[in-house]
Amino acid sequence: MASVSVPTDRRGGLLRRPSATSGFWSWFTTVDHKKIGILYGITAFAFFLIGGGEALLIRVQLARPDQDFLNAAVYNEMFTMHGITMVFLVVMPLSAAFFNYFLPLMIGARDVAFPRLNAFSYWAFLFGGLFVYSSWFLGGAPNGGWFGYAPNSVVDPTRGMTFYAIGLLITGIASTVSAFNLAVTVINMRAPGMTLFRMPVFVWMGLVVQLLLAFSLPVITIGLVELLFDRQFGTRFFDPASGGDPVLWQHLFWLFGHPEVYILILPAMGIVSEILPVFARKPLFGYQFVVFSGIAIGFIGFGVWAHHMFAVGLGPAANTAFAVSTMIIAIPTGVKIFNWLGTLWKGDIRFATPMLFSIGFIAMFIIGGLSGVTHAVVPSDYQQTDTYYIVAHFHYVLFGGAIFGLFAGTYYWWPKVFGRLLNERAGKVHFWLMLIGFNMTFGPMHVLGLQGMPRRIQSYPDSLGLTFWNTVASIGAFIIAVSILVFLVAAIASFRKPKEMEADPWDARTLEWATSSPPPEFNFEEIPVVHSIDDLWHQKYAETEGGRVVPVAAGGSGEAAAASHDGDAPGHGIHLPGPSYYPLVASLGLPLIGYGLIFGVGFAVVGVVVLLAGFFGWILEPSAE
Amino acid sequence: MLQCAGLRCPPEATQGETGKVRRRTLLVLGSMALAVVLAACAPNATQSALEPAGPYAEKAHNLFVPVFWVAVAIFVLVEGLLVIFLVRYRHRPARAGIPPQVHGNTRLEIAWTILPTLILAGVAVPTVATIWDLAAEPQGDVLEVNVLGHQWWWEFDYPEQQIITANVLHIPTGRPVSLTLCAAGLGYEQPAPSQCQPGPPEGLPPAGIGDSVIHSFWVPALAGTQDVVPGQTNMLTIQADEPGTYPGQCKEFCGLSHKDMRVLVVAHTPEDFAAWVAGQQEPAPVPEAGGDVAAGFDVFLEHRDDGSCTDCHALRGVEGPEDVPLLANGGPDLTHFASRDCFAGCSFATNEENLRRWLDDPPAMKPGSWMPEYDLTDEEIDQLVAFLMSLE
Hints:
The complex is a heterodimer. By secondary structure, chain A is an all-alpha fold. Chain A is 64% helix and 2% strand. In chain A, the strands form 2 sheets. A two-stranded antiparallel ribbon of chain A has the order 1-2. In chain A, strands 3-4 form a two-stranded antiparallel sheet. Chain B is α+β, with helices and mostly antiparallel strands. Chain B is built from 8 helices and 12 strands. Chain B has helices at 11-40, 55-88, 106-135, 270-281, 291-301, 352-360, 362-365, 378-389; strands at residues 143-150, 153-158, 163-166, 168-172, 177-183, 215-217, 226-228, 234-238, 244-249, 262-268, 342-343, 348-349.
């Protein structure tokens, strides 16, 4: 606290040190976890609109039998890009947005452990995403499915799957860096008194997700490098004629891919575990159980990957083992659902929009969870694997689950982030349209799959009797699109209101609501001292022996944040890292190296120079001046 | 505070909403239930996994049905609890203050950990038993067929009967058919090894056209799917109880024309099957001189610089210009082409009109088709169609 920031104009290495912390250009140099969180959120939402547009094109193509609205080549690119976009460029970074913004606030820290590295993660993610999307203009988008099964992904003559391999390597760098950054933040930077078991469940899930990322990304990295080498440099990792093995790719992909599923869903589970107690006005039922079941899911998540491969021919012993492990992972998942129900039990439930989305999450996730258990019944999965039944299942988990949960978080934390409330009426319209559209789109896919519609087919003949439900699903997809438009309009409209949100509009329980909305750059005037789980709640309300609640006398410490506006120069003397160009510069080198691997070594040389220049400037620049 | 922010709203505002919320919740749940009912009476699906037609498909189905109903019961129970809690414990202005702060109940939580465990154990036992049951080698009078997955069509080789055919798989009823599944075609450059095919005859290059990629053989009425993996030999047993036709489709994404890789299984009574085998064992009928059929035969045998029909396609019992027997080299054996109900990955009915379109421009019908466009004249196409349709 003693150090005082002294502005200087000393040149830090190659570039003049940026100093602006507001205004358009400050977004390019910011190392503030909150601004980076907003950047993640906006970028991921833009990709969500693009990925959703791809989904609509797919549904137009499949609305009627024997159509050629998208030809086979474009259709294959479309479903591949839809999958890559939604997994790697939407749900992962949207979760990263919430983690970035709220993990430090919820543990009472001023920023993440490595602020510039955090900026680097964001820029690497953005450039990785743009790199993959540039493939549309540079010889064709990836067309081998998000799962990229070899040898098809290797022998395909277009450049798409090379873009896939390199693009995912770049976003993988972004995610790995961010995973370590956030894990270190949670482990090392908690406020005094914030023991591990006083951490909000969202922080716990954040920690579990970062560890899952740290352990699973290396596996896909190996797979992607092998794919890239097979495609570009003549290696034969997946070619049986030369002693390679196509199934090796599947093991590598799913040993990453299944933990990835939990990387996508645990953040939403964390969000819902925060929202339910606030709007039911009761603490989370069985905090320890929820936390431990999250950890258990994280561990067991590494032992179930081959349930994606029951039909590959691994043999009955392997199929038995993975059937059992898959059933076991359903147990901690079920525990969470019962604990959420327990939270609602005897509550005082208010149906504000964040609560509606959380309830939608639970209701839809139950369906996805139950259909998931049917996959573990291996002989029955022989029928359902690679059909629309699977498409239905994972959309119930990742859309009905993750996306509903992330929207719940969006409505919940919007006032904290932007100092304004999203329109409640629009929020309710959004919720109901999305719930109806979602069930119309993906509910019938269960039936389609059971009635014999395989995945990833560009069209189907009318004779298969699949037309009716496909038409219903396509109509549903457009209802979802309308609901997203409602959200978009409400989001834009919210900025026309004055920025006058109070610190704690929901009467919430966790520390991020103890500071102003939006929080000052330094988060907390004074680092809070934590005395219990749900610390903010206990500052506001005292609990008697029997669980009865009485408000703490006015002037309790909950009002401290609001009081920070009087007095002069809030935040004076707080030491914060300065903005920097170098994370942006360094990450710019990554896509250049990628283009070099495709279009000639010249680009790669420039890319390496840019990357090293960025790192050198970064090293030579003090974290703050 | 300028806006009404949720919890601190005047009570009237949220109260009016909750009533509506409840009605709407019931409406949504009702329409979902209706959707499930409607699903049961969906129009005739011809490739459905819900109508097993043989013991191997039934084993899977007999597991799916009880698990489905257990899942439905849990669904009703849990979603029901959710709805009841939402209605019962919704905010009411009459209720004063904050509800008691219940932090959990260890006994209850242990109970709802153990209960799902028991249910899952109940599901696991028959699951594991059926896994091993289906993996067992079929016993008794078994018909052996080698199945080769090409990009994008299925080839069927009956080693004992010495029959090679494509797209349509004929089987006898009441008898297990053991399928040996291999991927065919080129690896990265050279042909991928395959245990479904004997090596090429002396002096001939190994068969290979198209890429050797992963496919999945799936005829839902007769059995669950089994992947066809390059470099690996997988087994699948199918069986049909009643004569009939059972459509299926490649299930694993295999490239550009994945959707066109279909299959039709025709099950005959044992007598009809024997007759079919006898018919297929006949050599290809060689046409008499004169007429379109003979002219088409000549076009078929003709050497063309941009590739001849005989480079890839076989006619059993027929010798080429240099007395070399015509062997299939990557393309379907055409010996009894006209006896098959469908061609080109079984996506098109075998008739003159489709065949004419196909010979004119194969990739236009089946994107990425490894049979290219040969710039045949209309006359040549007519003659070839006449010849191919004569190959009964």
